[in-house]
Design goal:
2 helices; extended
């Protein structure tokens, strides 16, 4: 019997119990053969980040947790299948 995996941080460590054996990580847009619980690693940077940190008077480092965000149209959408039992 597998132990439950209830800690997100622990699930991301190498050697953690895999939730999906066939899942491999995409690392910065490149497919890998690494099996892990991390589907994709994406980095977003705008401008010269190192230069920005070097020029800053104060740098505050913290860990932030946010809710999962999914960009979805909020207006209702109707889909209809036209076939032999529906009017065309």
């Amino acid at each position: 019997m597998l132990s439950p995996l209830i800690d997100v941080r622990a699930a991301m460590h190498s050697g953690a119990i895999l939730l999906h054996d066939e899942l491999t990580t995409t690392e910065l847009g490149e497919k890998t053969d690494v099996s892990s619980n991390i589907a994709t690693h994406i980095r977003h940077e705008v401008g010269d980040v190192k230069k920005g940190f070097a020029a800053a008077d104060l740098v505050v480092e913290r860990e932030f947790k946010t809710a999962r965000f999914i960009k979805v149209i909020s207006s209702p959408i109707m889909l209809q299948h036209y076939g032999m039992w529906t009017a065309k």
